[in-house]
Amino acid sequence: MTRLEGRVALITGAGRGIGAEYAKYLAAQGAAVVINDVGGGLHGEGSDASLAEKLAGEIVERGGRAVANHDDVSDWAGSERAVATAIEAFGGLDVLVNNAGILRDRMLVKMSDEEWDAVIRVHLRGHFCMTRHAAAYWRSAKAEERDRTLIHTSSSNGLLGSVGQFNYASAKAAIASMARLSHLELNERYKVRAYAIAPGARTRLTMASPAAAAVVGKEVDGFDQYDPANVAPFVGWLADPTCSAPSGSVFHVYGDTVTRYEPWRAAGTISAGGRAWDLESLDAAAADLFA
């Protein structure tokens, strides 16, 4: 028996790229998969339903179980329909992988409000809408006492910062925090394990960024560190109900390497000793604060 037999997974932005690798891997491990993808362009323009349909057909031809869904993850009603697709097609939802995203790269001093809003809408609002509707279902199905897995997609640019991606990196930083918040709200109450991963791979998004493309686009001999298929087994591992990874964890995954990140934590503390600070005492204590 494969490790994910009996699990139902919904993967957003799964019609191509790294999301497609997730879908194929989870299906090969026995999961029934809903392949969500509007088939839009790199900047969110247009749509192409054939992408999700084609991949779903390929999985079924290989003996797996898959259906396509073309709803917009950032649309409230659309994201609800995507969750409903999993329930109607396969009888439930066990795994949600929030993967869909777009780019509108620009330096802060040149970025328009529309470029900000478009990226925040797909990434941050999209993660929220999908998670909200999945969580509502898991709450209603609490009596089943069944393990659930929620996987958000952050980015190393969100964890560490990236010049020229003020919108994208801000959204991805917030999404990393979503893993912790999802854990706090859903784990104890509804047995939902929540995570965030920052995948390092050759995708449409990374190849559209000159700095990233210079790294991930290089030709290699032997093991290809940036093949998106390398990330899929880690997603499959998290989706496995026997997975030992603590809920709320954040990971950077690329090639043969997995790095665990920790959330904000206190790095230095100073005290004024029971009185209000003044400028001179702050000057004197600054070295201790940043030691």
Automatic annotation (TrEMBL):
What Gene3D superfamilies does the entry give? Answer: NAD(P)-binding Rossmann-like Domain
| Domain Ketoreductase residues, every copy | 7-210
InterPro entries for the chain: KR_dom, NAD(P)-bd_dom_sf, Peroxisomal_Beta-Oxidation, SDR_fam
Keywords per UniProt: Oxidoreductase
Molecular function terms from GO: oxidoreductase activity
SUPFAM superfamilies in the cross-refs: NAD(P)-binding Rossmann-fold domains
Pfam families (alphabetical): adh_short (PF00106)
Q: Which family is this protein grouped under?
A: Belongs to the short-chain dehydrogenases/reductases (SDR) family.
Can you name this protein?
Short-chain dehydrogenase/reductase
Q: Provide the species name.
A: Pseudonocardia halophobica
Kindly list the organism's lineage. Answer: Bacteria, Bacillati, Actinomycetota, Actinomycetes, Pseudonocardiales
